[in-house]
Design goal:
Blueprint (H helix, E strand, L loop, with lengths): L1 H11 L1 H5 L1 E3 L11 E3 L5 E6 L2 E5 L4 H19 L5 H16 L1 H14 L8 E5 L2 E4 L2 E4 L2 E4 L2 H10 L1 H17 L2
Antiparallel strand pairs: 1-4, 2-3, 3-4, 5-8, 6-7
Length: about 180
């Protein structure tokens, strides 16, 4: 389920869905690192010959861009020129499935050798709770309290979610 949510977030991401590369032949010329280009679009100078244009995000775009982005993704991905890359991904996935238990066992062996406990110790930094249908729902926001838990957090998605939330909050405050 979490993978599905991440895919939907990626598919609806305003940067992914509305960014387009411009070059010097496109007619846009920017003198500053951030400029307004007609309407409410913004352009960022990446390097002298490359600018990116963005349209500010609106909540409704989540619903309107999802089908379009999935369609674009499928159209761009499943082309004859990508057969080799897709075959490589299928082969690599098959290899990882085949060696999964061996990789898992070796990771546990290395962890024991490094004295990393197989526990996940966390402590809550924020303890919000809400009432829903008469029941109190506790939604703790936890952080790791040891190295072993920190390694777990790198792979569970909270790091990515926190980074994305930080960019979202910054963008909302700076209107960027």
């Amino acid at each position: 389920m979490f993978i599905l949510v991440l895919f939907i977030c990626w598919a609806c991401c305003p940067v992914h869905s509305t960014a387009r590369e411009l070059n010097s032949q496109s007619g846009y010329s920017l003198d500053t690192s951030l400029s307004s280009i007609g309407g409410n679009r913004l352009a960022y100078r990446i390097k002298p010959e490359m600018d990116y244009v963005y349209e500010p995000y609106t909540v409704s775009r989540f619903f309107t861009f999802l089908p379009k982005n999935i369609g674009k993704y499928c159209k761009e991905t499943f082309q004859e020129k990508n057969v080799g890359a897709i075959g490589t991904m299928i082969g690599a996935t098959a290899f990882l499935v085949w060696t999964d238990q061996q990789i898992y066992d070796e990771a546990q062996h290395i962890s024991r050798h490094l004295n990393l406990p197989p526990t996940n110790r966390q402590h809550a930094i924020i303890r919000p709770s809400i009432k829903l249908n008469g029941k109190l729902l506790k939604m703790y926001i936890n952080v790791p309290s040891d190295v072993s838990s920190g390694l777990y957090f790198l792979g569970d998605g909270i790091t990515h979610l926190g980074t994305a939330a930080g960019f979202g909050v910054y963008g909302a405050i700076a209107k960027d």
